[in-house]
Amino acid sequence: MSESDQQEYEQALAQVISALGTVAFPRRLAALVATRVVADCTLMLGYRSGGPAIYLYDNLRHRRELLFQQYLSGVYADDPFYRALSSGLDEGVYSLRSLVAEQGMGPHYMAGFYDATGWQEELGLVVALRAGQWLTLFLGRLAPRPFDREEQARLRRLLPVLGALCRQHWPKGCGAMAQAPPEQTDMRARVELALASLGQSRLTRRERQVAVLLVQGLDNDAIAGELGIGAGTVKNHRKHLYAKLGLDSRAALFAFFINHLITDG
Predict the structure, then answer these.
(1) Rounded distance, CA 89 to CA 118, Å?
(2) What's the CATH fold of domain 3-169?
């Protein structure tokens, strides 16, 4: 490492430490990683066993809407990283393509959603926050230039520092509440947009209608009357939409919607 590179790293590390406990921490953490490896795209998410992906930070410029309108609305469940974490993936640095090849996961994700993002290469840095909770920082390239062994080695050497910083910032895990992206729009318009796009990547039209009405506080009978279907049919739709979104209750659905509202621009 050259003297100028070392100085850049030390300055970035000092800024991360200063940002501990503040909303600037994820952005500063991403800047620290950028001193070790250059990438076109950075995305930071929190994951927890049996729960949805939690948005923390991004610097996306290409097809960014896919993150908020599809990935965080349910496509994350098909992400090989999410599935590998749910199966016990250890803290470390992983190539998406090697993860898919080794575990035989995500062919539909790769051929569908992932190709649409324009990312050609991806690395994921996995940090264990506490039991059943992880932070994953994704680095992407829009050109087919793989992250070489030396770049991956630099990130592995950085991983203990990242883990210590993250566990200091999130001593109880990153929680279930997403961090808001910087964009701000009218709240009523945001609520209406979030309701209109809730679960659109994973639910049928009828399941989405049921989900929207559940979020608004209607019970099964009221939903049945609103949609002109039987209460038993509502129960079936409710069961299916919970399963597709990885949820187990109305409270979990409402938390899912709040995160969708926060992140849906």
Answers:
(1) 26
(2) Beta-Lactamase (3.30.450)
pLDDT at residue number 265? 57
The span from the CA of 36 to the CA of 152, in Å, is 9
Closest CA to 74 of 255, 232, 245, 240: 245
**CA angle, corner 73, sides to 68 and 78, nearest 5?**
110
Class of domain 187-263: mainly alpha
Please, which residues bridge with residue 134 across strands?
Answer: 47, 128
Task: Quote the pLDDT of residue 105.
Answer: 62
Q: What is the DSSP string of the chain?
A: --HHHHHHHHHHHHHHHHHTTSTTHHHHHHHHHHTT---SEEEEEEEETTS--EEEEE---SSTHHIIIIITTTGGGG-HHHHHHHTTPPSEEEEHHHHHHHHT--HHHIIIIIHHHT--EEEEEEEEEETTEEEEEEEEESSS----HHHHHHHHHHHHHHHHHHHHH-TT-S-S-PPPPS----HHHHHHHHHHHTTTTTS-HHHHHHHHHHHTT--HHHHHHHHTS-HHHHHHHHHHHHHHHT--SHHHHHHHHHHHHHH--
| Pairing, β 54-58 against β 41-48 | antiparallel
Only one residue has tokens 């409710």, namely 238
- Domain segments of the chain: what residues? 3-169, 187-263
Stretches in the chain below the pLDDT threshold 70: 104-107, 182-185, 265
What pLDDT, on a 0 to 100 scale, did the predictor assign at position 50? 74
